[in-house]
Hints:
Layout lengths: L3 E4 L2 E3 L5 E7 L8 E7 L6 E6 L5 E3 L7 E6 L4 E6 L8 E9 L3 E4 L3 E5 L2
Parallel strand pairs: 2-11
Antiparallel strand pairs: 1-3, 3-8, 4-5, 4-9, 5-6, 7-8, 9-10, 9-11
Amino acid sequence: QVQLVESGGGLVQPGGSLRLSCTASGRGFTLSVMGWYRQAPGKQRELVASIRALGKITYADFVKGRFTISRDNDKYTVDLQMNNLQPEDTAVYYCNQNQGGRDIYWGQGTQVTVSS
């Protein structure tokens, strides 16, 4: 069974930065697309960024150069560096591991709150 553990959320002022980290248990990690999703209250969960095993990256349009996703296949980690955070970025952020569209796993989520 795959386990994903997120960390790094918290409260930050508008314009501030946070770095989210996700540590996976390792099973299938190097074969998987790793992603960060978020879900705000009353809204559907949405993709923030994803990174394939060999490094191809996809960002949501709302990221607009503010966020950077990275992965370490030796440490089974995927990070999300978030800069210039805005109140609309407030959400629970989830780590996702997707192997072949068949084996999909989620972390428990970490809260990010952007407020003055």
